[in-house]
Structure formats: C-alpha cells, structure tokens
Amino acid sequence: MEVIAEVGFAQASLARIAKHTGISKGVISYHFAGKDELMEEVVDRTYGGIAEHVMARMEGLRTATELLRTHLLAVAEHMRGHRTQLKALGEIFYNFRTADGAPRYGIKANEDVYLALEQIYHLGQANGEFRAFDPRVMAITQSSAIDNMFSYWVVYPDHDLDAHARELADLFERACTK
C-alpha cells in the first residue's frame, strides 16, 4: 500500500514492492499469481478492516438513525488512521483494469456496500423514523459522499475529516427523517 500510495499504481511493480518490503520478488510471486491478485488482496483487506471497525461500532444500536450516523462517523474514524491506504485505494480504483480495459472496481463493485446501507434505510422506513424515499438512491448518494470526503482529505490532509463526517451525518439524518 505504501508503494502504491507513493509512486502510483503504474509504477508499483512487484519488484518495487518487494524491494520496499525487503523481500524477494519470488516471495510475492509465491503468494500471489501476479500484480492483479495482489491488488485485489489490498482492496479486500482494506475493505475488510473498514467493515470490521464499522460493525463493531454499530453493534447493539437499535434505531436506523443511530446506525446511519454511526456508519458515517465510524468509517471516517477508521480511515483517519489509514490515509496511506486511502491513497493506495484511489490509485487502484482509478487505474486497475480488467483484461478488456474496463475498470476493475467501480459501481458494480460497490453492490455489497449499497445493500448494507439500504438495510439501514429500509429499517428506518419500516419503523417510521424515515420518510418515504428510494433507499437505493440514498445508499448510492451516501457511498458517493463518503468516497468524495476521503478524496478531498487525501488532497487536503489538514481538512478536518471528523467535522466533515459529522456534517455528512447531519445532512443524511435531515434528509431521511420525517
């Protein structure tokens, strides 16, 4: 992740990554079939870490409003300590392509995130906390807002990430409640 964040996706060769970590390229090749598989592992581990942190914060919460706010705040809380991972993810998302040239990550890759957010919105609508709206539209909008919050913070590291997350939580809460 450090190499990708530092030199960019295109320049992050297996040889350069091996040199940075002080191991041979063969060690990497033993564990990964190639750069593509390594990049997928980086994304999977990063998203797994985020999910683990967020789920721990959401455990025991009952209302959709609490879940919504906690999701937004916990994602920012976790990533505040992982700026290098964010830079690496950005490089991977913008540059990693499939064999036919299509982006490897994108809207379709976010489906699990959208489904999880939709569950919060459905809960809020079912229990009367939230007004009527399309949960898919709101899930996509929330996910996009989080992505752009992080993109901004990567470029402007002095930006107050926690304040930004609180503003988003307030915004989405006001947008959803009756």
UniProtKB/TrEMBL annotation:
UniProt keyword rRNA-binding, yes or no: no
DNA-binding region ranges: 13-32
Signal peptide range in chain numbering: none
Organism superkingdom: Bacteria
PROSITE patterns according to UniProt: HTH_TETR_1 (PS01081), HTH_TETR_2 (PS50977)
Keywords in alphabetical order: DNA-binding, Transcription, Transcription regulation
UniProt xrefs under Gene3D superfamilies: Homeodomain-like, Tetracycline Repressor, domain 2
InterPro entries referenced in this protein's UniProt entry, alphabetically: DNA-bd_HTH_TetR-type_CS (IPR023772), Homeodomain-like_sf (IPR009057), HTH-type_TetR-like_transc_reg (IPR050109), HTH_TetR (IPR001647), Tet_transcr_reg_TetR-rel_C_sf (IPR036271)
Pfam families: TetR_N
Residue span(s) of domain HTH tetR-type: 1-50
PANTHER family, sorted: HTH-TYPE TRANSCRIPTIONAL REGULATOR BETI (PTHR30055:SF234), HTH-TYPE TRANSCRIPTIONAL REGULATOR RUTR (PTHR30055)
Protein name: TetR family transcriptional regulator
